[in-house]
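Anyone else keep sequences and structure tokens together like this?

Example one:
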Amino acid sequence: MSAARQTASAIVSRYGGIYEHSPWVAEITASQLVGLDDIDRIADIMADCVDNASDERRLALIRAHPELAGRTKISDTLTKDSSDEQSSAGLDYCSADEYEKFHSLNNAYREKFGFPFVMAVRDSSRAEILAAFEHRLGNDQAAEFEMALSEIHKIARLRLRAMDASAPLNSP
């Protein structure tokens, strides 16, 4: 295996989880990320990749996100990052009434838009998330598609900061 391939492989291994279940973002941007240690630059390059992807690929990225306080939490199938993010917002401590409200909003949102509600929830309160949920249900399809992608970029940037992306990647 060539050194360049090993480096690209290491980058994909490191950054493949930044975008939820979408390692293709790291795969496509790997050659641009070699040697970078600036979190904002890494985030911008990865976001640009997503923004220039096909609508089908971007829709698949949105759909790769779990529902907030949804069944994936109960079944323990959330990624570690998603679990940590939802826990930071207290979504693992919903009351029965709050859980029912999230369940109802998740269903209404998915029915209207065809994808899950996505919000960068780290350090938000359950009340703030529920208010955003209700407000965004009033958006049209195009606005909400773009809003979901904007929130996904925020999540990616927060994940990069949390993993200390500024630590240089060791080249083999």
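And example two:
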Amino acid sequence: MARVTVEDCILRVPNRFELVLLTAQRARDISAGAQLTVDRDNDKTTVVSLREIADSTVDTEALRTALIQGLQKTVDFDEPEEDAEMQAIEIELAEASMNLDLSQEMREDSLTEQDETDFIAPEEETEEDA
């Protein structure tokens, strides 16, 4: 096959810097054992990846996605799982809060009953004394 030039690939990926990144990602994929989409012809993996991009035999969007995922330092979790976990925690907190409110009301009720009995008892004593 004839030599691959950057001009052959620029038609597929207009940004030269992005072309370098995508080519490097595809070369890493090939080195890791990815299936070739063009004949190797005794070329290095970088040249093979450039030829694949020039011939549009690889999906450049898939390469972009793989490149971005490879450069990310944190892993994003799916939001629905977090939402479900957060809802479960919120429900537990609400139940615990309700239990605390009920126990506090029960304590207040028992305190007022005790205060009433304490208040009534001295009056009865004074009436008995009289």
